[in-house]
Amino acid sequence: MSDQILWFASRGSGIVSLVLSTAVVCLGILTVVRWQRPGWPRFLTVALHRRVALLSIVFLAIHIVTAILDPYTSLGVLAALVPLASSYRPVAVALGVISVDLTLAVIVSSLLRERIGHRVWRAVHWLAYGAWPMALLHGLTAGTDAFAPWMLAIEGACVLAVGAVLVWRVDAGRPRRAGLSSVVAAASILQPGRPGREPR
Prior knowledge:
Elements: H1 2-32, H2 42-69, H3 76-81, H4 90-111, H5 113-116, H6 118-125, H7 127-142, H8 149-173, H9 180-190
């Protein structure tokens, strides 16, 4: 019975961690382009990003601890930190381990942000975007119910969410040429000595 509880706790916390890390990635991308909604200031977006990230780390820690304690997988601490050190589905577990290692690098750099400077912190912080696909692949390959319809639906929703935000991010970064002619026309009207300017 206790083994089943550990399995459910490990699997459940891993799924919740994936969903939360998906939200962290989405909020991170949106924050980069200073995304705002009416009535939702930017500082709230940044604060929400940090809180969801912390919550994701909590569930990730639960996932790791319960996976280590689960006698079925017999991971051990070393296998939870070193890629390919696991005897249970070594490649699948290694994907999760690499994701955890990248996340740890982001956490440590965030704690040392004052000392390492913003530029180094930002460079290391990009690793978070590498941790997410590794976690997704880990979920697809390590779990016994990875290809269950409900699990595929969760993972598909995560992929769609990140994909939609990435498309929005790329689109938001493009110059808006559609309204360029109207801007140029308005500028020429306002400049003195140009045709189209109304005399006073």
